[in-house]
Batch of 4 targets.
Target 1
Amino acid sequence: MTRSIFGRIASVLCITFLALFIEPASAQARFNGAKAYDYANAFDFSKAPSTARAAMHQFAVPDSSRQYLATHPSKNIDEDDPT
């Protein structure tokens, strides 16, 4: 069976709070958590973690992409954003 409800970042945060027994830091987080998709029954936390892993690969950025990015800088740069 597939679900027709899309998960949101609030849903991911909500399951994280529940799994780690963390209280939401603000009233806004609690409000968003109330609207979040309930992932609580989507995981069996009593089972050992799966050993299956996705292979990670690195690829060089093509010169054409580097040139494009150099000539089209982002207009939404936040110098204080650490990401």
Note: Helices lie at 9-20, 27-34, 63-71.
Target 2
Amino acid sequence: MEVVLFEGAMHEVGEWIESSIIDVGFVVLPAPGIVRYQASDSATILAMVREGLGITLVPRMMLPKKLEGVVALPLDPLVLPRESQGSQRFS
């Protein structure tokens, strides 16, 4: 089996399914009022983040080698020191 990933807007996914370009499509709809801007071009996305218009989750390989005005944080799981592990109560 070969898996090929397409990325597009909701209307494009519908067109791809209707024309048999793809077999399965997933569309994630944002919660009303939360998304103000959308972009699919990586340079545009990073420029919007740089200008303070929002945040983004992108694969590490999509980031340019030199980030100017943007902070990249990994999503690796937090590893606590051994003495901090175990049960804790939070009030």
Note: Helices lie at 10-18, 42-50.
Target 3
Amino acid sequence: MKSKIVVYLLFFSLTWFYSCSKKNEVETIPQKKLTSPYLTPEVLWSFGRINNLEVSPDGTKILFGVRYYNIEKNSSQNDFYVFYQV
């Protein structure tokens, strides 16, 4: 269990370091404006999807990612967030 946590922390820290070193190459995901009351496939693709949910060993923090897709560029971007217990 501890080795799995160490591997995850190492992976996320290297991902974070790599993403911070490439500040000029970060793409922004275009925002879709709702022009009709219907949820079209394009609008659904513009929503972020939660992934990589992990809870810290002491249970005080939750780490998760939100992946956004860019249909025009055929790419995706994963943003990581941490929730702290208050």
Note: The chain is about 30% helix and 30% strand.
Target 4
Amino acid sequence: MANGGDRVGRAATRNDVPAVAACLASAFFDDPVWGDWTFPDTSTRTRDLVPFMTPMAELGLGEISTEMTPAAEAITIWTPPGASYVPPEDERHDDVARPT
């Protein structure tokens, strides 16, 4: 925390999912795996990364902690010890990653 314990942002809510997904997409745009390899076409990468990151943003709302700056310029998703980020029965990424 900045300034000796002052919070910089706030907890994300369900209404913040689109902004959190967009921030994640921006952060991973040039990532060698989630950007270049998964979505090699840079002209459509942002379009494709946002729906790919939306389940990540949604999963960050349960027992996971997602914090964000007021306008979602920066976000952080924390998975505490013992928590599961993606339960085995969750198939949301199967739908997103399946070629069309």
Note: Helices lie at 17-27, 32-37, 45-59, 92-97.
